[in-house]
Amino acid sequence: MTKIRCAWCEKTDLYKDYHDNEWGKPVYDEVALFEFLILETFQAGLSWYTVLVKRENFRKAFAGFDVQKVANFKDAKLQVLAEDVGIIRNKLKIKAAVTNAQAFIKIQEEFGSFSKYIWGFVDGKPIDNNPKSLNDVPATTEISDKLSKDLKKRGFKFVGSTVVYAFMQATGMVNDHIEACWLRA
């Protein structure tokens, strides 16, 4: 029996694996949240597939997404990253990763964890949008607008509402699996 999936993931096995094992599953782990946040900011303006293909390279380049280490990257490290063909070499996004790590740590200090902060925007539980098809899945919502605005106020970069909504989908803050998808429940 063939599994019915959300149509966006049917192009490659890499997409299917990501869809089946990660996308839309609630994430509370600080390292995983930081990884998704950084990867989503690098994805801005590109396809998610581009990021997935380079994900392991990103993990190596960004110290396993250890937020403390990334927050302390110096200019020499940023230059090395800008020359690393294994990642997306956008200098502004690379610099933003360090800025975002520093802002992430400030949120951890203020709220006790980034998870507590981020999940507070959805009252601690996933929002179930129950889309019938991909056409019913929004690019942004009122909540992603609010969260984006708050992240920017706290110093984050490359966190527009579309990026934030994609982060919310990836980390299971919203359930946008289509009605027929085997992961819907």
Quick description:
The chain is 53% helix and 2% strand.
Can you put this structure into words, describing what you see?
The structure is a single chain. The longest helix has 21 residues, at 91-111. This protein has a single domain (11-175), classed as Orthogonal Bundle (Endonuclease III, domain 1), CATH 1.10.340.30. It has helices at residues 13-21, 30-43, 48-53, 55-61, 67-71, 75-82, 91-111, 114-119, 142-153, 161-170; strands at residues 127-128, 174-175. The model has no long low-confidence stretch (mean pLDDT 95). The protein is built from ten helices and two strands; from the N terminus they run ααααααααβααβ. With 185 residues, the protein is mainly alpha-helical. The relative contact order is 0.17. The chain has a two-stranded parallel ribbon with strand order 1-2. 53% of the residues lie in helices and 2% in strands.
Topology diagram in text:
Blueprint: H1 13-21, H2 30-43, H3 48-53, H4 55-61, H5 67-71, H6 75-82, H7 91-111, H8 114-119, E1 127-128, H9 142-153, H10 161-170, E2 174-175
Parallel strand pairs: 1-2
Protein name: DNA-3-methyladenine glycosylase I
Pfam families: Adenine_glyco
Organism: Flavobacterium difficile
Task: Give the full name of the CATH homologous superfamily.
Answer: Hypothetical protein, domain 2
* Mean pLDDT across every amino acid position: 95
| Shape estimate | globular
Per DSSP E runs of 2 or more residues, the count of β-strands stands at: 2
Largest sheet: 2 strands, parallel
Q: Which structural class best describes the helix and strand composition?
A: mainly alpha
How far apart lie the N and C ends?
18 Å
CATH class: Mainly Alpha
Strand order of the largest sheet: 1-2
Order of helices and strands: HHHHHHHHEHHE
How much helical structure, as a percent, in the residues?
40-55%
- Beta-strand residue percentage: under 5%
* Parts with pLDDT < 50 across at least 5 consecutive residues: none
What CATH architecture would you give?
A: Orthogonal Bundle
CATH topology: Endonuclease III, domain 1
Q: Could you say how many structural domains there are in total?
A: 1
Query: Total helix count?
Result: 10
**What is the radius of gyration?**
16 Å
